[in-house]
Every structure is written in structure tokens, then in C-alpha cells.
Amino acid sequence: MPDDLKNTDNVSKKILEDAQQEANKIINEARFKAKKILEDARQKSSNELKEAQAEARNLYERVFELEVSKVKAELKHKILIEKIRIIDSILKKTIEAVKSERSGVYENSVKDAFKKLDIKEAEYQLGNKENLMTDQKIRMIAPEITLQKSKELPDFDSGIKIIAGKKEFRFSAEELIEAEIDDIRITLSRFIFGEE
Questions:
Q1: Do residues 147 and 180 both lie within one domain?
Q2: Coil, strand, or helix at residue 188?
Q3: How far apart are CA 109 and CA 105, in angstroms?
Q4: Rg of the Cα trace of the chain?
Q5: Sign of dihedral through CA atoms 161, 129, 91, 77?
Q6: Residues 3 and 80 occupy one common structural domain
Q7: Helix axes 3-99, 173-193, angle to 10 degrees
Q8: Is the entire prediction scored with pTM above 0.85?
Q9: 169 lies in which domain range?
């Protein structure tokens, strides 16, 4: 092989080697860049996943807390309703006991009320449906007051009306209870359920 040809062949080989090296260099750089892009994408994806998981966990905890609070509120409401039902049941029985002739509570309350009136004589009326007080009981309760049954018909169903001149006073078991019902309810609630 002549030298020129050999030189040409060497130059060609050198060009091809240089081209191959350049191609390998470009390929390696491309691989490095691709690897870097994939690593960055994985890192970004991992970070986004962690952020999404943290946000999901935070949202879950908030929803969970809201649901727990809702259930607690519903339970407290049910407990309150049951407490009210118990108190109302006890109050109903108490009212029935006060209204019964056996208890004497109503009679004693009327007697105390008569003492506070500070009157010597008066007329009285019994309600159309009054069944706890009678003419005889009224005179026994207030023997120090001269009482006459009014000739006018009563315009009320229960209780007693005392008419002393232009003054009128009315007593009934219902009014006695209603005047104290809120205090009774609070006292009863504290007694049964304690301070909450």
C-alpha cells in the first residue's frame, strides 16, 4: 500500500475514530442528561407525592375531627333530651303530688298566702273545676279571716279568688307550680346530674 493511501486510510480512520468519540461523547452526555432529567422527575414526583400525602392526611384529620365533633354533639344533644325527659317526668309526678289532697303542699301554700294578705274579711270564689279546695277547707285554712262565699259566678276554672274590697288575689296549684317551675327544674337538674 502506498504511503499516500496509507496516510489517507489513517486520516479516514482518525476521522472515524474522532467521529465515534464525538458520537460516544454526545451519547454519554445525552444519557447523563436523560438520567438527570429522570432523577429530577422522580424527585419532583416523590416531593409532589409526599406533599399530596401530607395534604391528604391533613384533610383526613380535619374531616375526622369534624365527624368526631359532630358525633359528640349529637350524643350531647341526645343526653340533654334524655335529661330533660327525666326532669319533666319527675316534675309531672311532683305536680300531681302537689295537686293531690294528700300532700298538703297546696293547702300550706294557700295558708301562707292568706297570712301575707293582711286582711280581716273578704269574699272568695272557687274555680269552676277546682277540686282541691272546698268551702270548709278554706275556712279551716284561714280561721282568722272572716270569709264569705261570693254570690258571683267565677270566671276561672281552678284555684281560689279572694276579693277584699277592690283588691283581688288569686291562688291555684298551677300558678304555685308555674311561679317556681324554672327554679325547681334547675335545682332538680343539679341534684340529679350535678354541676356540668
A1: yes
A2: helix
A3: 6
A4: 49
A5: negative
A6: yes
A7: 140
A8: no
A9: 104-193
